[in-house]
Amino acid sequence: HTTALRPAGLPSSRDRSPGSVRQQMPTQRPALGDVSNSGKGAGGETTHSAKMSGGHNKPRRGSVMGEPQLSTEVLIGRDFTATVGLKVLLTEQGKLESNLSSGIDLGLGTITNTADNTCSVRWEKTGTTTTHSTGKGGQYHLRRAINAEPNHGLGDATIAAPVLALHDEDEEVPKGISISAAPKPRMMETDGTLTSHSQADSGLAQFGLGMCYLRGKGVEADPTKAIEWFEKAAANGSRNALFNLGVCYTQGLGCVADRTKALKYFEQAASLGDSKAMLQVGVCHISGRGAPASETKAAEYFLRAAEAGEPTAQYNIGVCYGKGRGIEKDLVKAADWYRKSADQGDAMAQFRLALCYATGKGVPKNSVKAVELYKQAAEHDHGGALFNLGVCYSQGDGVIKNEETGVAYYRRAAEGGVAQAQHNLALCILTGVGAKKDPAEALTWYEKAAAQGDAKAQFAAGVCYEIGQGTEKDGARAFELYSQAAKQGNAKAIVAKGLCYKTGLAGEQDDEKAFTCFKEAAEKENPRGMFHTGQCLYTGTGTSKDEEGGLEWLRSARLKGFAEADTLLAEI
Fold first, then answer.
1. pTM for the full model?
2. What b-and-e string marks burial along 512-536, b requiring 16 or more CB atoms within 10 Å of the CB?
């Protein structure tokens, strides 16, 4: 991964939002939202009680031919013995082998009596009781698997594990470059290139007049006239004027933007010892704006500016050493430069140095020190630092575990626009971990993160819409969100999308599209995707029948610890 650099004078446009690279931290406990494979139907679909309270009830168990118990569904083609108390399901998509016709929707029922190859079923939806013929030995045969609730491996409301990897942001170079402030009297002394007192007086006065026109102080603002006076001051050797000319041509202030001219002025100011100009020359070379991209030249200028004490340049050269950009990679030197910049109050440097301590890169690993530095960066509302503090407090990493404090940091980061923090905050609110349970508010935060393209949040929000958690059920919206997450390669969402096609939640029932989704997830080594792929191949559902190929995928799912695959293979 590469880390882009930022110029002086402006806070990063992404200080409040996460980047794409995350340093993986060791998990000290099972992540919130980890879902076990217990309580799932023999067909691989998660079983749900029909009377879920806000989606929080866990699946109930019952016995079916001595195998793990079912509640609302059974495996395609699976015979099961009718026993009193067993839950069964009828919908318009399938029927028991009985005298009931297709299209009847009786919902969830309970077998209340069995005798002489018949059984009675009490239906919860209608309150009626029906009698059905069974096969030899009192067995039923379900021709098609039925889904009463989404089959995403959800045993309870913890529908997606939180993001527990610390941010390691890859930043883009902001477009804006700060304008040098009007010099104080001492700046005439530091501008040591002036050759005479008269020249010094003229250069300083011309620069000051240019600033007046640029800012509209004492005169009507006129950036074009500002450039004229900056050019006169530059001719008299004012490096501040040269720097500001570079800014004007970068931003198009009083002129047509011209990156090449801007770089020329920055280079002239840098040659006169202006550290901020050195930084900007480095930015031009790292971004390829105004000159061919050259990380080597960029690193040279960043190092010069850093040695002159420029904090942002110290941060940037730290990035170069840390990533090996334009200079030989050296994690120790990277940490040293981050520390120098952090000591001057640079929030990004404080954040980067914290990551060094959190991961043991360039410094001895020290979680306590990492938290201290995250807090320093958090004082500047640095989004990544706020999020990482939430992770640290949630896990008890470097601090005493305090889930309420973790939620508080997640909330600050979420309000600042950090998508992963919005996701974690939603999960905490949904499950009541460190926060009051509120499914509606949880969905609001999932939606915010989903709108920023967070795939885990898109998947989680999709589940909420499918099961009606925090909102009314909306299959179309659920399918839309699953599709968004699936497009980003989220394996759980790909399986969910496939199940939407399988059940018709997508607006169409299409076994072939379902199989395509299952196969895609299986190839990503998702165990549920492997299971459904094997099931489809073995039965020839949505694809050509291939029993051996199906068995191979089922064995792969079993090796991944997927319990339903083990159950099905034992039966086969």
1. 0.68
2. ebbbbbbbbbbeeebbbbbbbbbbb
